[in-house]
Write a structure and sequence with these properties.
3 helices; 100 residues; 0% strand; single chain; mainly alpha
Length: 100
């Protein structure tokens, strides 16, 4: 008997090559695919940015609601009314001096 090493059959080589390729594909897809890690990091960063914008807009809405309430008929703040008239209409009282 001769001790010649037996070569693996072509089917085994093809099978392992296909499994290795499939493993590489799924690894690549899990990192860079539409639902991969990079997309997840991008979505988390966008969510943080949008949360900050939402908080800023909520603060702006609260400020506008406060000003609207103060200008309503039930609660008229004369100082706010005077400030709005000066800013928007450019009004001044007769005893004031305007400097440019």
């Amino acid at each position: 008997m001769s001790n010649i090493p037996k070569r693996p059959s072509i089917g085994v080589v093809v099978y392992f090559a296909a499994m290795f390729s499939l493993g590489l594909y799924f690894t690549f897809a899990s990192v860079q695919g539409d639902f991969g890690l990079f997309k997840r990091v991008q979505i988390d960063a966008e969510a943080a940015t949008l949360t900050l914008e939402k908080d800023r807009l909520a603060q702006e809405v609260a400020s506008l609601e406060n000003k609207t309430k103060r200008l309503s008929d039930d609660y008229l703040d004369l100082d706010l009314l005077d400030q709005q008239a000066r800013d928007i209409l450019g009004l001044i009282r007769s005893d004031e001096i305007a400097l440019n």
